[in-house]
Amino acid sequence: MSDRYAPMNTRADAFAGTANWAFVVISIAVLWYGFQIVFFSIYSMWMQTPKVVSNPGLIDDFAYGSTPAAVRWTLATFAIYTGLLLATARALHGIGLGQLVGSISAAWREFWRVSLYLSPIYALLIVPSLLEPEAEQQFSVAEWLLLLPAILPLLFIQISAEELVFRGYLQSHIAALTQNPIIWMGVPSFLFGLIHYDPLTVPYSAWAYVVWATCLGLVCADLTARSGTLGPAFAVHFINNIGALVILAADDWLYGAALFVWPMYGLAWVPWIPFEALLLFTVWLSARLAIRR
């Protein structure tokens, strides 16, 4: 493994003696099917509560994430992944949260440092859009600020669940099986992209979003390998999702807690490739400057 990725050796060492391709497949199956079982068990019970029976519109609110409560509950469901992952990692490898995250103190420092570097970039990206006539304000600033104490911790639960699964577990596990970074960064990042595939939208838009998410995954994978902790990846994912879900959200899904909403008019997302590529490169470079690696 090259010097720039030397910290990945420590992460991979946590899986020494227990790394196995079969365990990679088993863990993915446990996470995928386990989530379905737990989520739909809770969901079916919720649908039978008197509140939902008397107001079926709540089901649509939850499906689209069109209210603050729906956003809170949607984000909270990602804790299911974290619970399943921790149980699986303990059962198959005898490791816990500390090994998946890396040094907690270092991760905490790097999280705040990278967040500080990225915040002005996203502000420059988002603020001009808020001034466009198409942007519709959903809440007063005071109302929106009152939502944040609940929304932000739940948003961290959502992004941390994804980072723990794809960078904390899969990337480190696969790095213990092969020293080829194309494999141990590429496979988890592609799987990360695939979970963002939307079969209900047009194929071009759906696969373009998969490619974008895969590239974001590669940014987080590279930063994790350079730093040895999930701190930088947490920061990239968290700041990105604050911008996309809490400040300015598209009105097609999970927009119920955003200060502003951007109307999509029922149209699919069409990426401007040069802009998206430049943004991801800027995020990656800024995060590297933040962690000095």
Give the SSE map.
Elements: H1 7-13, H2 21-47, H3 50-54, H4 57-64, H5 68-76, H6 79-93, H7 97-101, H8 104-130, E1 136-137, H9 141-175, H10 181-194, H11 203-227, H12 231-247, E2 248-250, E3 260-262, H13 273-291
Helix pairs in contact: 1-9, 2-6, 4-5, 5-9, 6-9, 8-12, 8-13, 9-10, 9-11, 9-12, 10-11, 11-12, 11-13
Written account of the structure:
- 73% of the residues lie in helices and 3% in strands.
- It is an all-alpha fold and 293 residues long.
- The radius of gyration is 19 Å and the shape is globular.
Give keywords.
293 residues, mainly alpha
Spatial strand sequence of the major β-sheet? 1-3-2
What kind of oligomer do you see? single chain
Q: Work out the number of β strands.
A: 3
Mean pLDDT: 95
Task: Write the H/E string, N to C.
Answer: HHHHHHHHEHHHHEEH
State the end-to-end distance. Answer: 16 Å
Percent helix: over 70%
Rg from Cα: 19 Å
Q: How would you classify the helix and strand content by structural class?
A: mainly alpha
| Count of helix runs | 13
Q: How would you characterize the largest beta sheet?
A: 3 strands, mixed
Give a nutshell description of this structure.
The chain has 293 residues and is mostly helical. The protein is 73% helix and 3% strand. It is globular.
